[in-house]
Amino acid sequence: MQSELLKKNSFDFLRLLATIYIVFHHSFELLLSKPQFNSIGLKDFRVNLEVFALAIFFSISGYLIAKSASTSKNIIHFLWKRFLRIQPLLFIVCIASILIGAMVSIFSFENYFQNFQTWKYLRNVFPLFGIEYSLPGVFKGNIGDAGVNGSLWTIVMEERLYLIISVLFFTRIKNFFNLILFTVILLNTLFFISYFSFKGSISTYFSSYPFQFALMFINAAAFFYFKIPFFKTSKIFISILLLLVIIFPSLLVVKVIILPFVIIWIGCQKSIFSNVFYFGDISYCTYISSFPIQQMIIYNFKNAISPEKLFLLTMLFCLPLSLLSYNFIEKKFLNLKNAFWDS
Questions:
Q1: Which of 97, 184, 262, 299 has its CA 20 to 30 A from that of 116?
Q2: DSSP state, residue 330
Q3: 89: nearest Cα among 330, 336, 339
């Protein structure tokens, strides 16, 4: 059962929108095409929609993961809750991918299952140290990409960020507040320095998109820790903030702060969409299963399918699958979050 907090905000709706857009974007990307509308904003101020969708994921995750850390009994309890949310379904998706891969691989069943790369794919169940994108001989004829599940790179980042949060939130030192503040300031400073100076590989890394998304996660977590009053923040203030960025596009450099702030503010508002997951949270299953489903559809259509049709077929598969997944798999595991701790 969802917490009272989640019943009174729009976080679920934002995650659903972001998930649907990622599926939409991949429908074009996997067919080497581009959607007609892939950015929003004015002429001199446009935000890539894929970047915005991922910003939604990482910002909301950072904020709610910080909340989860604050309500956990200890670091083991926190990591246990994260394990239950991510690993069980990820394991099922990985096993399903291997089995489906055996049916479409250019290799025989025997050669496929004797190939070390097949079993190496199980590394994705615990992607903390990296992931495997391909299975032997699988989807090699697909036009855009032979990867089985290109969405998993974000899970790698998420799990690494969980460890960072666990260290920051459960390191009980005298100057704990200063440790959090120093970490946030340091990481943002590295980004800003790198953004204006691309003189080396280290500098380039700190302005890369993966680092920016990680920073949005950290900043959103800091917003929770420092108790930013999003529920009380004025709509006028948010409007002025967005207007300033539109008038002065150069302010986009602070998107690692502005985007998480605006996203969390919107998420904290109650709306008619607050109970969008009344029948079950479909976002996680849709996100991690849609890519291999899309690849399978492309394979069966022998690349002769439009991006729009691919998107619609993928959602027709994913929506009922995700509802079943949440109610009969994910929720069962989530109910174990306090199994070894008092409620």
A1: 299
A2: I
A3: 330
Contact 53, 21 (CB under 8 A): yes
Q: How big is the CA angle at 93 (ends 323 and 122), to the nearest 5 degrees?
A: 160
CB 292 within 8 A of CB 100: yes
Element (H, E) at 46: strand 45-48
Token pair of 107 as six digits = 């290799």
DSSP 8-state code for residue 10: S
Asked if 265 contacts 237 with a C-beta cutoff of 8 angstroms, the reply is no
Amino acid letter, 214: A
Confidence class for position 3, pLDDT limits 50, 70, 90: very low
Give alpha helix (H) positions in 197-306: 201-205, 209-225, 235-247, 255-267, 283-300
* Model pLDDT for residues 280-321, shown as the tens digit of each residue: 899 999 999 999 999 999 999 999 999 999 999 999 999 999
* C-alpha–C-alpha distance, residues 300 and 305, integer Å: 10
